[in-house]
Amino acid sequence: MNSHTVNGIAANPFFINSNHLVRQRTNELLANAVNDPVTTVITVCAGAGCGKTQAVLDFLKQQGGLFFWVQISERDNTVSRLWENIVASINRIDSDMAVQCSEIGFPDTDEKIEKFAKFRNDTLTNNPHIIVWDDVHLLKEPSVLHFAKIIINVLSPNRKMILIGRDLPEINFKVLDLKGYVSHIREKNLNFTENELTDYFKKLKLAVDSHTIHEIYGDTKGWVFAINLIARSLERLPKYFGYIQNTFKKDIFELMEAESWTLLSGQLKRFLVRLSLIDHLSAELVEILAAEETHVLSELKNVNTYIRFDDSLGTYLIHHLFLHFLNTKHTILTEDDKYKTYKAAADWCSQNNFKIDALNYYEKINDYESIVSMFFFLPLDIPYEIAQFAKGIFDRAPAETFDRVKYFATTHVNIVAMLGNMQEFYALFDYYERRFLSLPEDDEMRSISLCGIYLSMGIMRAACAHDDVYDFDIYFAKMFDNMTEKFYNSSPPLDCPRGPWLNLTYSSKKGEPQKYIEATIRSDETTARYSKGITMGADLLIQGELLFYQGKVKAAEPFVVNAIESAIKRMAFETMHRALFYLLRIAVAEGNTKKAETVLRDTENLLNEKLYFKRYLTYDISLGWFQYILRRPEMFPEWLTEKFSPYAHTSGIQNFGNQIKARYYFLTKNYLPLLSYIREMKNRESFLFGRIEMLAMEACVYYKMKIKNKAWDSFKEAYETAIPNDIQMPFIELGKDMRSLIIAALREHPGDTALSIGIPRPWLESIKHKTISYSKSQSLFINAYQKNDSDVKTLTPREKDVLTYLYNGFSQPEIANKLELSVNTIKMITKILYDKLNVHKISDLIRIAAEQKFL
Questions:
Q1: Of the residues 177, 400, 430, 583, which has the fewest C-beta atoms closer than 10 A?
Q2: Residue 638 gets which letter from DSSP?
Q3: Are 582 and 625 within 8 A, CB to CB?
Q4: Count of Cβ atoms closer than 10 Å to residue 210 Cβ
Q5: Is 468 within 8 Å of 506 (Cβ atoms)?
Q6: From edge to edge, which strands make up the β-sheet containing 182-185?
Q7: Whole-prediction pTM
Q8: How many angstroms separate the CA atoms of 712 and 403, rounded?
Q9: Which burial class, exposed, middle or buried, applies to 371 when counting CB atoms under 10 A from its CB (0-12, 13-18, 19+)?
Q10: Closest CA to 502 of 486, 491, 513
Q11: Contact status, residue 66 vs residue 93, Cβ threshold 8 Å
Q12: Per-residue CA distances from 702 to 669, 671, 696, 820 (Å)
């Protein structure tokens, strides 16, 4: 059979001619849909073997535009795996964007979806692009379908999505369809017509009479895959035996066996079956698998009937039906063949951030050491789906694995803790503690396992001290009693803060916050023999935190500053961020705008720390709080203006975000959802400082709504919760709103030493004076930034030029080239624009420029 080369692989003329006809017809339909300014979603639905994937891919490559191709598999019904797949598709186009998307994590909540959509729009503002999801019929999982629905519904006119599949998943976009935003390409558009079938056989120089063509068309209904195989059969034996379509599909494996399989070498057969074991067929991985197979790649490049290489995707594509055929041949593989295949694929997936697939392949070969090693390099707050998937692996592992594989028991305990099942966590901890204490004291497995589970218990006791027992230092001490130098050197650093506060006491009883602090200090003293320590500056910051909440701002500052210095030395980014956040609040309380600007710059610098996985979220939180102080709700990061996140755990980052959302709702007078959130908080566990903040805010809300009886009740509850430990700052930071509430309380109860609402007059008078002072400091900031806003109107022509180029998506080096200036000059002008518009990143600069119509 004659052949020629396509993308370096010998091409089959039957498939070239048939695909050409399909491609020609599909190109016209796709071009109409893509160029239609109304259409945002294009569906291409047809059965297997109709050439839909190839037709769409050829069209996009011919167009030369930007497209992101996501190849769906059944495992993408796990949301974390789908997200890894999406990030990988982005990485092929823009590695920096992929890194940032990976850090955002799967958008499984409304605010994350909003954040992802905003990030995508900011990044690709001036780049029309197409998102392609191939084999969408495999998607079934509700949360995945919800994400797909959101992505589809937020598409803008210059961003389109093509869905390819045998049928459409259960994604509801009927409204878009009714509005004419959806174009459909169906199987009938891809199948041959009878006339095209005639032309096809003529191009192949096959003598087929019109009656036979009519019979073939009647049997196949123009199905491309069937016609290709019939053409190959006619080349060998020019007689059509009348396969009807259903029989043809039924016997298709036999045809593949006869037409292709028998012609392959034994080495290539085994290699193709090895490839059928895995989902990822990137050129890099295929080359790794072929490393020990002499000449197998060169032979593979001459097999083109059902497998080909696509250079735009950098991957090999195997036809679905041939893949099913290969799955029937697994018996020709040895156990060593399977082991090497899964091991190579798992290692490649782990290195390329396909965590779910890596875990799956490692489990298939019982490589539990590699599974454990993966979790040493994942952040503490790993995605729920990954933790849930991993827990299944640990639950299924043979009992002897826990005695044989180092850190396996520790990782098991950690994963259960990440999933939040505390009853199971405590039971599992007790089981492992008894098990490893029974081993000889000089047993290495005993030492490293006890060390790991005590660390996990210490962290959980610190975050979940519902019983007012602060014994986490005991478990940290036990950890170090069992610690070996090897474990210490291989363990990842521990950065304590995870939520809004360091002091995680629940109780409002007198002295409870101090007891928590003492346990934290004991933890640091216990671990001082090792350079890493356990608190990494948190022991200092937690002392400053309590002083701050007690209104002793000047006394708090030295602890906060020293905590920053300690955290910098140890690269403790969470502690660093919380310390900077408190320093920002101290600067506002003092009315010190220069100090605040320095803190904001230092906070922004944390965005450069790629090992700080939550840096974008925590930066937005600091920025959101500062915009609350400036009374500028329009400047809040968008995800902090959305609905409150569902409750996960009080120490989680979602709870931190909810604290800032509460301030946004308060500022915008959107009181009903705010009150609903506070009521929900009262019915579950909550940390002391945050509970007082919300109760004080609730009192102000009810007063503004003129529901005074509820305002007094909330005020009293806030006071009674705060007074045992002299907590004042939640009241003071409410500024003029708290002052108005206090003035009203004093006015309605003249002369009383202790008001009828249960709050002493001296305390009210004291807090009133402090809120007056705080309001003055806050006014200094508001006035200073209003002045900066007015300065914006006096942008120089050069500043306007740079702003215009930034708005249109040019980088600083590109702008320097356009304006014939140095890059440093452009950076200096950008810094001036930051100062004039009072922002700290380019995306905000562009947004304000658009909103205030400077361009």
A1: 400
A2: G
A3: no
A4: 9
A5: yes
A6: 66-71, 129-134, 159-165, 41-45, 182-185
A7: 0.67
A8: 60
A9: buried
A10: 513
A11: yes
A12: 11, 9, 10, 59
